[in-house]
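Report of the visiting student (M.T.), summer placement. My assignment was to run the structure pipeline on a short list of targets and document each run. The first record concerns Flagellar hook-basal body protein FliE.
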Amino acid sequence: MDITGLNTAQKYSAARMATEPTASHNAAGSAFQTVAKDFAATLSEGETLAKASMIGKADPHSLVQALAQTELAVEAAVTVRDRVVEAYQEILRMPV
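After the run finished, the structure tokens were exported:
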């Protein structure tokens, strides 16, 4: 039985839930906290798989998938940071 295929299917279904819309009852702080925890978990998982692949205990396909997810998470974080900095600079340019 190919366990990596099962693991991949479980991760896909878990990621699928993250894209579904949620009720807007959460405060902005708790939503940001959830996003930060998910981001940290993605980075941690990528790092763990990279370490495991260095000693030959990880499937190369899983490693590539984890690195792609990590790259996407970092790119999203950089995009959000750039937008926040741009908005801050726009506020600074407003006349008083």
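The longest helix spans residues 60-92. The mean pLDDT is 82. I thank the supervising group for their guidance throughout the placement.
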